[in-house]
Amino acid sequence: MDNTLKFTDSHEWVLNHGDGTVTVGISEHAQEMLGDVVYVELPDVDSDVDAGDNFSLVESVKAASDIYSPVSGIIIEVNEDLGDRPELINEEPYEGGWIAKIRMTDPAELDDLKDEAEYLNTLED
After folding, report:
1. Signal sequence span per UniProt (predicted)?
2. N or C: which end of the chain has fewer CB within 10 A?
3. SS3 (DSSP) at 89
4. How many distinct structural domains can be found in the chain?
5. Residue 89 in domain
């Protein structure tokens, strides 16, 4: 896993591209808890999101789970591959299973997220 990943308490991950944009998905732990993903509701490109807003939905054979935006900004791209292959979230949660890319309006919000070690420690509690 890349050290530039940050995590939320609600199990989303964020990859900072260093240019004001981030890629967002759900963690390995989250996809394991959900089980086999069968559907992903993607956000609309050009829509505004605030940190903590529900912006996507992932449905599995076990449950449906809201996905929350880790940062505020504008959705600039969504992973259209998930329409035909939602199982990418299970198979490649940190690569092919990403959900959306966001142009941040407040990059300082990244400071509120956990690094990998902090996130993994919360899973053990």
Report:
1. none
2. C
3. helix
4. 1
5. yes
